[in-house]
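Holo model, Phenylacetyl coenzyme A. Inputs:
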Amino acid sequence: MYGNDYGPDDAATRTETRDRLPRRDEPLNAADAAALEGYFDELIDADQRIEPRDAMPEAYRQTLIRMMAQHAHSEIIGMQPEGNWITRAPSLRRKAILMAKVQDEAGHGLYLYSAAETLGVTREELLDRLHTGRQKYSSIFNYPTLTWADVGAIGWLVDGAAIMNQVPLCRCSYGPYARAMVRVCKEESFHQRQGFEILWTLARGTEAQQEMAQDAVNRWWWPSLMMFGPPDTGEAATKGHTAQSMAWGIKRFSNDDLRQKFVDMTVPQAERIGLTLPDPDLRWNPERGHYDFGAVDWAEFKRVLSGDGPCNAARIEHRVRAHEEGAWVREAANAYVAKQADRAVVGAA
Ligand code: FAQ
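Output:
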């Protein structure tokens, strides 16, 4: 039973159409293809969720696999820059918090891989695509964490940008992704808060600590703005996925709108902490009711995406090594499942 079984319109006709359509990996004849289009469009127009059992256009399915997998990969690769500081956290309290945060990121990866699997792709395949460079992860995780203040900057800026991007995904049209995002966003809020608090404390510390905090913010600000993706509105818009993904209710806002919301939210927070943001063009524009900000270096973004960021090679190398070293855990889990299945057969006989 899913939410889209109910609704103000004739859900019964929809259920009948859904049950009549072949499963998603079977070829469609012309009549079924037309029925699928009507059924899918009707759900999207009514702002209902599409569920794993529902027939869906292949392009919709592939878009979600790409986006959810990239998101899942980002969560687990994103454990590395912060994991780098677990053994060097400045106090037991900071260490406990950081360990909890890094574990949360592993959990997010787990929810997202599981949600992606409902689209008919295996986790092995998705990980293979990551390890062989056929799928990306967020550009942000190709930057190094040079000082403890970087942990604060990641929490405040990177998790802050992630929340801005992901809260609308709680209303994504694909049910399993939307539901996974609800919990992810709750946890990200705690992450952002802990980053803010690290920088708040450093900004009230010694001169060296204040400089360290400012230096971290200077390095993470622009890459955080790049996280939202390339420009997709106005003259600078590049040809991307936004228009189609918005029409399908996957994305709810453009990359540019979310970037602007993030800037508007973050500038007053920076003022409260007492740190500056490294952009001489940043100023309030009363006519627009938003902050104006300088040009993002999209050439750097492209360079990082094409593999030439400061840490691309190290991140994948580490991930592949961790995967290989974890082979025995997967083998043990599979052996356990096989043993349980054997016992069930013996028990039933
Ligand atoms: N990095 O047309 P669009 C986190 C690619 S989680 C790399 O705008 P789309 C939690 C894009 O794939 C962070 N690639 O694409 C955490 C496409 O490439 P393709 C991850 C990027 O999909 C915090 C091309 O550029 N969050 O931080 C990036 O409609 C701290 C054209 O772009 C998500 O994945 C980028 N930044 O929109 C963990 C959220 N931006 O396939 C640890 C879900 C764009 O055509 C520590 N994803 N590209 O070759 C999304 O919301 C979307 O996928 C966007 C991109 C907004 C990222």
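The first strand starts at residue 283 and ends at 285. Residues 44 and 263 are 31 Å apart (CA to CA).
Archived with the compound record.
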